[in-house]
Amino acid sequence: MNSLSILHQVPEGHVGVYWTGGALLQTITDPGFHLKMPLITQYEPVQVTLQTDQVRDIPCGTKGGVMINFEKIEVVNRLGKGYVYETLLNYGVQYDKTWIYDKIHHEINQFCSSRTLQEVYIDVFYQIGEKMKDALQGDCTRYAPGIEIISVRVTKPTIPQSIRRNFEHMEEERSKVLISIERQRVVEKEAETTKKIAISEAEKNAKVSKILMEQKLMEKDSARQQQEIGNQMYMAHENILADAAFYRAMKEAEANKLKLTPQFLELKFIEAIANNTKIFFGDKVPNMVLDQRLLGNFLQRMPGEMAREVNSEKVSRERLEI
Prior knowledge:
Residues 5-171 form the Band domain. By secondary structure, the chain is α+β, with helices and mostly antiparallel strands.
């Protein structure tokens, strides 16, 4: 129908390529409506945006001779618009069969043949996609530079049922071990957390005890300072009293020293004799020995003292009369 039609449409994301008599033309058309010669010119749209090629049922043998099968491998790729003519000229419209489908089969078998089932199925399975991408891109860059490999997605291969059961059992045991390890880690974490809580509580109690002890020490120190102040005040008071007593004693001593005159001693002597009143019974009074000098002085002062007393009484009566 493409060869019979005159008007044709190139869809978006594609370019139109043309053959005349089986020869590929260099004419490349963009999306839209275009005209061509019917019967003579054939037209084919070629995708130049991202596309995903799915390679299915890829059998391979491992290093140990076990046959496994990759059910599906997806290759995301893109053909550059500027390389459409060169790529189709060298490899035709089905260029992806040569450089993707067939190449994937070859690279997967190369990868599996040098590795054991354990490595392919578990240990290095995560590396398969990246290794396939590098291998495909390396050959495409060398021989078909217009093809760009974006990514490769690999599904888990199918292995014999008996071997799969063994792997599943191993995985179960590994899971149990991992669970035990995780449980042990949880217990250790809980113990560590409990230890940290206990340490934190002990540190808190120690800090509280330290604060209380410091508070008590401060109270004791304050009481000691108050006692010292009280003692100092008491000592100062006692010193003042002692100084006053000493001053009074000194003044009394000085006063007494000033009083120690013959006249004062004579007066005290007479007062002592006068106060010494005694009654004697019997027919003879005891002899009394007096110092003639003291007695003479006393008798000399008596008239003067009597005259002063008379004068003082006279003055008193005059004041009362006034």
